[in-house]
Amino acid sequence: MGDSGRAWFKHCHLLDSERPEEICTWSNHLLQVLHLSIRLHSSLHSQELAGDLGQTYDSNDTLTHYEKNSMGGQTLLVVGDLSYADRYPNHDNVRWDTWGRFVERSNAYQPWIWVTGNHEIDFAPEIGETKPFKPFTHRYHVPHRASNSTSPHWYSVKIASAYIIVLSSYSAYGEYTPQTLWLQDELPKVNRSQTPWLIVLMHSPWYNSYADHVMEGESMRVMYEWLLVRYKVDLVFAGHVHAYERSERISNIAYRVVYGGCRPVLDENAPVYITVGDGGNVEGLSKNMIEPQPEYSAYREASFGHATLSIRNRTHAFYNWHRNQDGYNIVADSVWFHNRIWTPYSEILPSLK
Ligand SMILES: [Fe+2]
């Protein structure tokens, strides 16, 4: 991380409490357009690219589209799976370094918020590496202690009018575990007058109608979904599935094993779930979809791209998804989101059958 990154994290910490006058400065600066949510997969195809900021064509295309977007994103939310170094012999850490150089053109100048993905685990006992997450956590520091987290894999940051909670799909989330205790303590702290927009990031999506990674997020959903509904989280972003999908505003928290009844329903207290695992990577797109498209799935498409979220005020946020095959400012999916606290009515007109 460069000095600018460290400087930003200092500001991020200041947003919490230390110097309110700086909070105002940053909030006013960021409030107008807060761009969120992009996931980048990157890896080297060949040695020829090693000296030239290694990346796949698609990864570079995504980042270029993000940079050329006239909306001018100010923060990037990276929902996990960064370098794909673990796909190379002995988890070649040079790939981590080349990825760092590839993305430096952006994250040297604006904050990137890191989420832990499965390609960050780097657990390789066959070569003596028995400590998970080492290359990732050594390179990409996060301000987890500022939110009383004991781990860099789950934490929160405030950015302008958004309160962003980062969760870890690859850390324990059972009852009594550190991540669960932290989340239970964290959600009641969110002051929706200060930060009206409550956003959760994770890697493995809870709602996914592609054939890849089916049900991988289900156990975490069972544990945490009721909490996100209780505290009226506005949006949940995830990656992992190499495609794009946006859900209706739904929940599925009534289920109990003893009486069944498991079915997502429209729920105005629930988040919208968005998968943006479409950054472009060596593994390619997830093209196989479960048919027919579930009613809770509002839009899905297997294309590389990125998404932007422009928080306009405490009631409205404008969301867009952009495809790499389109021009820089072309929008493929677009929706206005209404804040769950300040405008709690639904954006959804039809009901699920
Ligand atoms: Fe993944």
From TrEMBL:
InterPro entries: Calcineurin-like_PHP (IPR004843), Metallo-depent_PP-like (IPR029052), MPP_PAP (IPR041792), PAPs-like (IPR039331), PAPs_C (IPR025733)
EC number: 3.1.3.2
Annotated Calcineurin-like phosphoesterase domain residues: 51-244
Keywords: Glycoprotein, Hydrolase, Iron, Metal-binding, Signal, Zinc
Keyword Iron: yes
CDD domains per UniProt: MPP_PAPs
Pfam families linked: Metallophos, Metallophos_C
Enzyme class: hydrolase
An example Gene Ontology molecular-function term: acid phosphatase activity
Cofactor dependency: Zn(2+); Fe cation
Span of domain Purple acid phosphatase C-terminal: 270-329
Catalyzed chemical reaction(s): a phosphate monoester + H2O = an alcohol + phosphate
Family under the similarity heading: Belongs to the metallophosphoesterase superfamily. Purple acid phosphatase family.
Name recorded for this polypeptide: acid phosphatase
